């Protein structure tokens, strides 16, 4: 059993908060264990709760379009949410629910070890950019250690505010450049020990 499959079993049996009492299916996330890019959304909606998969409604269709615009397929990236069960009525996740699910997302990140984490929406933004406004920091990357964090509007935002669609599309188009930069940094980091050993 892979590390992610084992993790999914743990998530499926989780009763760490009241959301577990109302879910149809838990939505752990999906994608390859070695994905370079990890997208983190907010919470499952109705469609996700029915299918047990993230981003399968209208926002998911837009995310697929966005991925296609940078020559990526869904099965080449990892997609998850801050919380793994649908809040009743699609309400915002509560702080206690986010905290209860935090260990699952922490472990996913640890297993996948992505080069870029893309936050989609304000709840995943708050995890890495506390106190920041998404309107101010979207499309502006920040590096911490070996990971680049890149905030974007949630794809659903474009469904409610058509004016955001172009903004989201433009932010997505920057991701290939970010990946190229992480490749260069990784190459330099790998070379440095060799250069030091020559002296």
* Count of spatially separate domains: 1
Q: Low-confidence parts, pLDDT < 50 over ≥5 residues?
A: 192-199
Report strand order across the widest sheet: 2-1-3-5-4
Q: Treating each run of at least 4 consecutive H or I residues as one helix, how many helices?
A: 9
Give a structural overview.
The protein is of the alpha/beta class. It has one domain (3-174): Uracil-DNA Glycosylase, subunit E (3-Layer(aba) Sandwich), CATH 3.40.470. The chain contains nine helices and five strands.
Topology:
Elements lengths: L2 H10 L24 E5 L4 H6 L6 H12 L8 E4 L13 H18 L3 E5 L1 H7 L5 H4 L4 E3 L2 E6 L2 H6 L3 H10 L1 H24 L1
Parallel strand pairs: 1-2, 1-3, 3-5
Antiparallel strand pairs: 4-5
